[in-house]
Structure formats: structure tokens, C-alpha cells
Amino acid sequence: MLEFEIRNKRIQLREEYLSQNKGRDFLKHILPGMQILRESALLLKSPDITLPSDMKALLSLFDVAWSCNSQIFYYLMEDRVEDRKIPSLIHDVHHYLSELCVKVNTFKK
Hints:
Number of strands: 0
Mean pLDDT: 86
Helix content: over 70%
């Protein structure tokens, strides 16, 4: 289920980038969906974990648990996205989701 959601985000990302707004709206709206994915992934690894309510604390915990580098999402949380950087951010988010999908797919309890 988690892998399906990650793959779905990747497809949405591609579709939004090819749309007229070049992914601008998707980058603004990806954070809540990514929070749910992170919570699910953390619960997958540690079902008894207490999830922090703060998005940055959750992100930090997720990075440690899944050996990820979510720096791009800190950037998105601060809402400092310049139009000229959107293609690069889209690429980075897509790469991040691809790596996460592999990690989740190969995870064994």
C-alpha cells in the first residue's frame, strides 16, 4: 500500500510538471501527502513509535529511520520556491520518491 502511494505521487508529479503550471501547484500541495507517507513508513518500521506532531521533527525522525535526505522538503516548507527553481525541485522530488520507493519495496521486518 505504501509503495503504491509513493508511485502515485511520482505519477502526479510528472503529470503536474507537464501541465501548464509546470508543477508549481503540486509542489505547494505535496507536503501534507508526504507527511502521511512518512508517518506510514515510520509505523512500518516501528509500529509502536510515537509520531511527533511537528512536521520538521517528523521529517528529521523519518530521515534517520529510512536513511533519507529530505532537505528539499525543508525548502518547500519555508515556501521559498522561485519559479526558475521549479524544474530542479521537481527533479529532486522525483528522485527522492524513486529512492524511497526502492527502500520501502526492499524493506523486510
